[in-house]
Every structure is written in C-alpha cells, then in structure tokens.
Design a protein that fits this description.
This is Helix-turn-helix domain-containing protein. With 401 residues, this protein is mainly α. It has 23 helices and no strands. Helix 10 packs antiparallel against helix 11, helix 16 runs parallel beside helix 19 and helix 17 crosses helix 19.
C-alpha cells in the first residue's frame, strides 16, 4: 500500500484526537488493522469505499487522504497574559496564607467577588482574571477569622477561577483542577450546601478536563443525591445548583463514546435536570443560567459529544430564539460555538462560520479561546475556498489561513 495514505490517515486521526482503538471502532475494525493501515503494512491498497468512510469519520475531503500532504498545523493561541498570571497566582504564598494582610470588610469583599462574577458572565474574562488574584488573597485573610460567610466567598472566588481557567483547555487544566479542589475545601468549611454543591460541580468539570469522565459523572450524581434535600430547601439558588450538578453529570456520561449505556445515562441525567428546571423556571439564579432553556442547550452539547451531530443540529433548531436571547452572554456565546461544531460536522460549513461570527460579535474573548481557534482552523482546512469572513475570523483568532 502507498505509505503516504497511511501517514495521512495517522495525521488526521491524531488531529481529531482519536486513538487507533477509537478510529478502529468507528471503522468497524481492530486496532491492529489501523496499525497496519497507517504503517503501510497491508498487502493491498484499501478500497475506495474504505477510504471514503475514513474521510467521513475524520471529517475531511477524500482528496486529503489520496493526494494532499499533511499540512503544517498552526498552534492555536494559549492563555491570555492575565489568565496565565491568575494561574500562576495559585502557587504564590500570599494567596495561600493570610500573612500580614489587613482584613477586608466582608461587604467590600462581597462586592469585589460579585464584580468578578459579572465580568465572567459578560465574557470579560481578562477583566475577571486581573482582579481575582487580589480577591483570593483577601478572601483567604477574611476566612482565617473563622467566618462562614468569608469561607463561602473564598469558595466562590475559587469556583470562578476554576471555571475561567477551564476555558483555556490543556494549558490551564491542572491549575483549574487545583482551584476547584480549593473551592470545595472552602465550601465545606463554610457549611453552606449551595457553596458545596457549586464547588462540587467545578470538581466534576475538572475531572472531565482530566478525561476522567466516568468519575466525573459518578461524583456529580452522588453529590446531587447527597445534597438534594438541603438544596431543594434553598429556593431558586439551591435548585439551580442541584440542576447544574445533573447537567455536568450528563456531560460526564459522554466521555466513553456513544453506546446504549452512555445514551441511557445521559438521557436520565438530562431528565432529572429538566424536572428540577420545571420547578426553577428560567430565572437566572447565582449566575448559573439554569432553567429549561439551559437544559435544552446541554442536550445539544450532549448529543454532539455522543457523536450525533445531526441530532444536535436539530435540537439546536428547536430552541426558541426568544428563550436563547434571555440567556446570559457567556451561555449564549458558548452555545453558538457548540452549534458551530455541530454544523461543521454535518457539512454545513457556512452555517458554522456564521455561528462563530455571531459568537464573536457577542463575546470576542469566547471565540479567542484555543479550542475555538482549533475549530476555526478546521474550517479553513475543510472549506475549499474560504471567504473573507472566515479568513478574517481566522486572523483575529491567531490562526493563519
């Protein structure tokens, strides 16, 4: 066999984040078959139908496997400086211990934490990242007095830090998990079930980012069960915390790939979240955006993660525009990116570009993230003649056409 075909298959398989076992399963073959195919050790050239199926799975034109050399990949941008500084601040001594810092009055600390939450919800990630190191340091000082409210504020600041760092994928995975663990420790000190549940959700997210999906789903589900009675007594904030635990559990169930068990578990977690959402309504409680619409947005994400991009596109189209417009800016922008991924996978590449442009207009920092830049790069490679809109978006994302 032409070893160039095997090398191209290996390149695009790795580019899509698939192991040889993953690719073999999707092709209906063994891992050894994939090894032989990529190594050029199979005795005959693969049939055209086999190459076409490989191209479909890898989401590239057939010509890329037959004639094109593997292109040089442009590395997507990493963390912005302010976000990188926030990650570094987690390892500085003044953040971990109160030292000689003067205590900050709790009302002032509460206002500063709230400002960071509002900056996050508005997708001003760098603004939140600039303030958080000092907020964390002052919250540690306040919590050292034994105040339960100060401990809850410290947990909230760490929760926000974790969520912000998780936006930046691989470079921020470890510091994000560190922040999530500290958020949970502070929440448990506070004794506040809402703080504990919200921090537990970030820990589950951290497990997902570490590719420990089964552990994430089990942990989020167990946390929801353990805290349910207390959270149900907590009014809208408690219900939103409970519902979000079920939603992150639904995402966690998708990590092992599509299977009847994964589909059933994800469906059950979404159903449990929907039941809570019916009681909660669409009122945004505690910056979660939880409610029936957010459950619908997670359904789109879950379907996409379960390799059902067509169903994800259909689910996205069922969401009423007015309901989506009522969501916070961060949640809307994130959904537009998910919709763009589903559109790209279903060969609706113009739609994908349009969704990304809408997301950029709404929240430029959301579209500058590394994972979104990689999607833009994929579109550049998949579209035969990229238009000015896509090329301009790529340039703004730091991706060379």
């Amino acid at each position: 066999m032409d070893t160039g075909v095997g090398r191209r298959i290996a390149y695009w398989r790795e580019h899509r984040g698939l192991t040889q076992a993953d690719f073999g399963r999707l092709m209906g073959q063994s891992r050894r078959w994939v090894q032989d195919l990529e190594g050029g050790q199979r005795q005959t050239d693969p049939r055209l139908s086999v190459l076409q199926r490989a191209a479909d799975i890898l989401r590239i034109p057939l010509e890329r496997l037959v004639t094109d050399p593997a292109p040089t990949q442009t590395a997507p941008p990493g963390m912005p400086p302010d976000v990188a500084a926030l990650a570094d601040s987690l390892h500085t001594r003044h953040t971990l211990t109160p030292a000689d810092r003067a205590p900050v009055p709790l009302p002032a600390l509460r206002r500063r934490v709230m400002f960071c939450c509002q900056a996050w919800a508005s997708c001003h990630y760098s603004a939140a990242a600039r303030d958080l190191p000092a907020v964390l340091a002052d919250a540690h000082t306040a919590a050292a007095s034994g105040s339960a409210e100060a401990a809850a504020l410290l947990s909230r600041a760490y929760q926000l830090t974790a969520s912000l760092l998780f936006k930046y994928s691989e470079p921020a995975r470890v510091p994000g998990a560190v922040a999530a663990d500290r958020a949970l420790a502070a929440a448990e000190t506070s004794g506040d079930p809402v703080a504990i549940g919200a921090a537990a959700r970030r820990v589950a997210r951290g497990l997902i980012h570490q590719k420990r999906h089964t552990a994430a789903a089990q942990y989020a589900t167990a946390s929801a069960s353990a805290l349910r009675e207390d959270l149900e007594r907590g009014g809208p904030v408690g219900l939103s915390t409970l519902g979000m635990l079920y939603l992150v559990a639904a995402v966690g169930t998708t990590g092992t790939g599509r299977s009847p068990a994964a589909v059933a578990q994800a469906t059950e977690r979404l159903r449990e979240a929907a039941e809570v959402a019916q009681r909660q309504g669409d009122d945004d409680a505690d910056f979660t955006g939880f409610g029936p619409t957010n459950v619908a947005l997670h359904e789109v994400d879950v379907l996409l993660r379960l390799d059902d991009a067509w169903a994800a596109v259909e689910a996205a189209r069922r969401i009423e525009p007015a309901a989506l417009a009522g969501m916070g800016r961060e949640r809307r922008a994130r959904h537009l990116v998910t919709d763009a991924r589903a559109s790209a996978l279903t060969r609706r590449r113009d739609d994908a570009t349009q969704r990304l442009l809408e997301a950029e207009q709404l929240a430029p920092e959301e579209v500058r993230r590394p994972s979104v830049a990689r999607l833009v790069q994929d579109l550049l490679e998949l579209v035969p003649s990229p238009g000015a809109d896509l090329r301009g978006l790529a340039e703004r994302c730091g991706v060379r056409p």
